[in-house]
Design a protein that fits this description.
The chain is α+β, with helices and mostly antiparallel strands and 110 residues long. It has one domain (3-108): Trna Endonuclease, Chain: A, domain 1. It has three helices and five strands. The chain has a five-stranded mixed β-sheet, sandwiched between helices. InterPro entries: Restrct_endonuc-II-like (IPR011335), tRNA_endonuc-like_dom_sf (IPR011856), UPF0102_YraN-like (IPR003509). It holds the Pfam family UPF0102. This is YraN family protein. Belongs to the UPF0102 family.
């Protein structure tokens, strides 16, 4: 299982929990966000990391990428009715080679 199918698997998990997929591989001025979902009024930004193990996947998110993701998320919510006051959450979805998925909610604070 590689990148795109990992994203699909993660999106299905969120949708099964009642979230609605708003965008996949959304690109803003600062860069790309793997998945953007809606849980009611809340916008959930999800970065999907795939590696041989879950722990190795978790290590793949560095400070520069975090800053880029935050800037992209702010770019996305600028188009929302509430703008920067939009309720947001940033999750990290870890996927290993066996297809196991671990979602870390609120991986970053906005």
């Amino acid at each position: 299982m590689a990148g795109q199918s990992a994203e699909y698997q993660v999106a299905r998990r969120y949708e099964a929990a009642g979230a609605t997929l708003a965008a996949r591989r959304w690109r803003g001025k600062a860069g790309e966000i793997d998945l953007i979902l809606r849980e009611g009024a809340r916008v959930v930004f999800v970065e999907v990391k795939f590696s041989e193990t879950l722990s190795r996947a978790a290590q793949m998110l560095g400070p520069r990428q975090i800053a880029r993701l935050q800037a992209s998320a702010q770019d996305f919510v600028a188009g929302e009715p509430s703008g920067q006051d939009t309720e947001m959450r940033f999750d990290l979805a870890l996927v290993d080679a066996a297809g196991r998925v671990e979602i870390v909610e609120n991986a970053l604070c906005f």
